[in-house]
Amino acid sequence: MVRNIILYNAVKKLRIEGRSYSEISAELHVSKGTVSGWLSKVKWSVKTKSLLIAQNNKYSAKRIILMNKQKSKQKLERHVQYCQEAKKEYKHLRKSSLFLVGLAIYWGEGEKALKNGRVSVINSDVNILQIVVDFYEKILNIPDKKIRAAMFIYKDIDPDKAL
Length: 163
What we know:
single chain, about 160 residues, mainly alpha, 7 helices
C-alpha cells in the first residue's frame, strides 16, 4: 500500500525516464526495497519497457565486463598465492623420495590436459599404480574416496587375466 502518493508518482516518473532502482532510491531517499515493491505491479507501456530493457542491457554489459576483470584479478591472486605455498611445500617435500618419484611418474605417464581439476596417470604396471596412489594420498592429500581406477581392456587381452 502506498502511503505517500506524491513520492510514489515521483518514483514512477523517474523509472519511466529509465532510472535504476538504486538511482531512484538515492535521489528520493526511499529504500530500494520500497521502490521495488511500489513498481513491481506497475504495467509499463511498450515504450517504457523498451527503454528499461535498453538501459538494463547497457548496465549489464558494463557489470559483466567488471565481473570478468574482477574474476581475472582474483584468479591471478590465487595463482600467486598457490605459487608461494608451493615454494614453501617444495622445501620440505624435495627430500621425500615418494614426492620425487610421484612427480617423475606423473611427468612421464600423467595426463597433461587437465580436465575438471582431475589428475590422472595411465599405466599397466600395478606397482607403479600403487606408488601413484601413495603419492596422491600422502603427498597430494587426496582422500581415498576421491581416487578412482579404470581399466581399458582391448580385444587382444583376456579380461579375466587382466582383472
